[in-house]
Specification:
Number of helices: 14
CATH architecture of the largest domain: Up-down Bundle
CATH class of the largest domain: Mainly Alpha
Helix content: over 70%
Mean pLDDT: 86
Order of helices and strands: HHHHHHHHHHHHHH
Number of strands: 0
CATH topology of the largest domain: Growth Hormone, Chain: A
Structural class: mainly alpha
Low-confidence stretches: 188-195, 401-406
Oligomer: single chain
Number of domains: 2
Largest sheet: none
Shape: globular
Radius of gyration: 20 Å
CATH superfamily of the largest domain: MFS general substrate transporter like domains
Length: 406
């Protein structure tokens, strides 16, 4: 664990707290702001779409003005945007605009962070380094939901969001500390030389296609699970245990996201030892199997549901860092930002659709029920994405020698 990696991970932790705080605040905001479910979902959709657009632009800019500059600018803008959101958002209408602006700012720090790790660490330890950074993100998601569940009932959402603003200040400080002595390398400072691989060839290579489509299928399952698993667990566990809402929220946050933090750490390290392809196939297969089982577990008792939820949170994010690592090793460095841009817009585009598709299947299989009890088919629909991710991983060539950016 180098100082660079620790500081960069802390910065990603802070950004992830800001990214997930609205979801954690939602049960309280719906009553406070008098929002319908559609309105509450629209705010999150606006954030997701803005975040996806930001990923696209930031990834492309990283190739042209350096990942370091984009990363630092995004962290600074995220602090300003979230502070504005925390101060001004007081209704559905204001939050729809302001949280979308937060998404535009936050998206710029994700793919540049991956590019910075890829440039800093050799292939032999890159999977571990990627896993550490993504583990920081998972801990941020967990902390955001726990902060909202414990802080808002006592202090209200405004002071709670003020704490998030302080966290973002720390994130900006750690990003500056991590990168102050790092060079602002521009990947495309020189024109392509004779004999170099063109972008069209890179885009059309078998590994690039399979890694991009695999990531898209992975995001379909992961972001759909993140959107709906908390609701499933809340409704299911409320029938089984008599916990306060804050306690229930903290337990759910830790079950889903702390297990995810452990997962990215372990899978990244194992991918350095056992190979990227083996981990991608294993984790995607496990995640798909759990998607097909998880929704039917509501009547199996609280213990079984919690164990399955922990395994589900572990498996569905385990291949995220490994997919990113494999992409950095399969694409020439001067095209890495552009490839990550394409991958991000496809992956997060699928991730924006899957929660809506989940809700449609849930409504279709629970017609007339205000309190859904049949969740199995909706989660199985997410499992289709996990199945495709596993198939694409199986079709990958065996781990190749890394490209020159390793």
């Amino acid at each position: 664990m180098s100082a660079f990696l620790l500081l960069l991970t802390t910065s990603r932790f802070a950004a992830s707290v800001a990214m997930m705080i609205y979801s954690g605040s939602l049960p309280f905001l719906m009553d406070e702001w008098g929002m319908s479910g559609t309105e509450a979902g629209a705010i999150q959709s606006a954030f997701n779409l803005a975040y996806a657009a930001s990923l696209l632009v930031a990834s492309w800019l990283s190739d042209h003005i350096s990942a370091k500059r984009v990363f630092l600018a995004s962290n600074a803008l995220s602090l300003v945007a979230f502070a504005l959101f925390a101060l001004v958002a007081r209704s559905y209408e204001s939050a729809l605009i302001l949280y979308g602006i937060v998404g535009l700012a936050l998206g710029g720090s994700y793919t540049p962070a991956l590019m910075l790790v890829a440039a800093k660490f050799p292939s032999s330890s890159r999977g571990t380094a990627m896993g550490v950074v993504l583990a920081g993100s998972s801990l941020g998601y967990c902390s955001a939901i726990a902060l909202a569940a414990s802080g808002i009932p006592v202090f209200g959402y405004r002071p709670t969001w003020a704490v998030v603003t302080v966290v973002l200040c720390i994130g900006l400080a750690t990003s500056l500390a991590a990168l102050i002595e790092e060079p602002s390398h521009v990947n495309r400072s020189e024109p392509m030389k004779h004999g170099e691989t063109s972008f069209a060839s890179t885009l059309g290579s078998r590994r690039s296609i399979l890694l991009t489509t695999g990531y898209t299928a992975h995001c379909w399952e992961l972001l759909g699970m993140w959107a709906w698993a908390p609701a499933f667990l809340t409704i299911t566990l409320a029938r089984e245990v008599e916990w306060a809402s804050a306690t229930l929220g903290i337990v759910i946050a830790c079950i889903l996201h702390f297990s995810g933090a452990l997962s990215t750490l372990l899978s990244g390290n194992l991918s350095d030892r056992l190979g990227r392809r083996f981990i991608l196939v294993s984790m995607a297969t496990l995640g798909a199997m759990l998607s097909f089982v998880f929704g039917w577990s509501g009547s199996w008792g609280a213990t079984a549901v919690l164990i399955l939820a922990a395994l589900y949170g572990f498996a569905t994010i385990a291949d995220s860092g490994v997919l990113s690592t494999a992409m950095t090793e399969s694409v020439p460095q001067h095209y890495l930002g552009s490839m990550l841009a394409l991958r991000s817009i496809l992956g997060f585009g699928a991730g924006a659709i899957s929660p809506l598709a989940f809700g449609w299947v849930l409504d279709l299989t629970n017609q007339g029920d205000s309190d859904p009890r049949n969740w199995g088919w909706a989660f199985a629909m997410l499992g289709a994405g996990g199945t495709l991710a596993a198939l694409f991983a199986i079709m990958l060539p065996h781990d190749a020698e890394p490209t020159s950016n390793s």
